[in-house]
Amino acid sequence: MSDDLKMTVDKFTFLVHGDRYYSEVGVWAFWMQPQGNNRVRVGLTDYLQQHGGDAAFVIAKPAGTKLAVGDDFAEVETVKTLLVLPSPVNGMIVEINRALEVNPELVNQDPYDKGWIAEIETTQWAADCAKLLDPPAYFSAMKSQVEKELKES
Amino acid sequence: MNGTEQKVVMVPCSGIGKPFGTVAREAAYEVCDSLRPDGTRLVALSKLVLGDDAARNLVRQNPVITIDGCPKMCAATMVKQSGGTVVSESTVFDAFRRHRELKPEGIAELNDPGLQLAQVMAQEIAATVDEIGRSGKMATGDGHG
Asked: Is residue B89 situated within a structural domain?
């Protein structure tokens, strides 16, 4: 779970971090257990941010919002589209990344670190995690999607 | 512009087929054709990319306002690489962040919010043209000429 994966197509390079889990739609979940809590930090993947384009607004649901898997936790409005992000885990939002209110471009510049969107206090991480994709599995799904888009273009 | 009156040169994004680029060009047309036709001159970004001598001389000898579509700032970058002086950089992206209700969509034809955003930007840029005229920057636009 520590090695990053990378795919380069034409002038685009898509990075998948090896230290977290992923939903098929391109939301990552990073378990912060080593920091002594049950929080999961969530954000969008490098592929999804490049696919969506430059972010103009990032609107996350407020702290205190309870979520089931699949519930929307944030919207990212870009120059191309509106990305509605479903939660990869059950739990409650306990913190949102206030920096994105002023600098939404962080989700483009640093999607896996400074561009995190929310932290969710999980209630059943082990069960939720089992339904997510590990980095190689997400990388494979992403690669298939990229190849499909290349054929269609 | 040798020996002639200086004008503020507008260089908009060339993102043909992209809504934000289209807004940039619409705003530039509005300023150059309607709002400040006597004090401005439009230069196509593609001419700078191709190294057109007349276009390069225009941006070297006059103050330049760039109107980019996205944060990549191709127009501003190209003017600087051509030896020009950018006195004001605008992006449609930043204008949209100030006016979320005016999201540009459509390519061949901009939607109404996109056209409104172009108008908003054109008014702001026209004010910048006036400011440049008052500030004396017209006299310093030939620094690279």
From this structure: yes
Q: For B100, which of A54, A57, A79 is closest by C-beta distance?
A: A57
Q: What is the ipTM of this complex?
A: 0.70
Range of the structural domain that residue B122 is part of: 8-133
**pTM confidence score:** 0.81
Structure tokens at B77: 């970058």
Question: Tens of pLDDT along B53-105?
Answer: 999 999 999 999 999 998 889 999 999 999 999 999 999 999 999 999 999 99
Q: How far is the CA of A148 from the CAs of A7, A80, A144, A151, B112, in angstroms?
A: 14, 20, 6, 5, 34
Contacts of A56 in chain B (CB under 8 A): 93, 96-97, 100
Domain total in chain B: 1
Q: Which domain holds residue A32?
A: 5-146
The closest alpha carbon to B139, from B7, B37, B9, belongs to B7
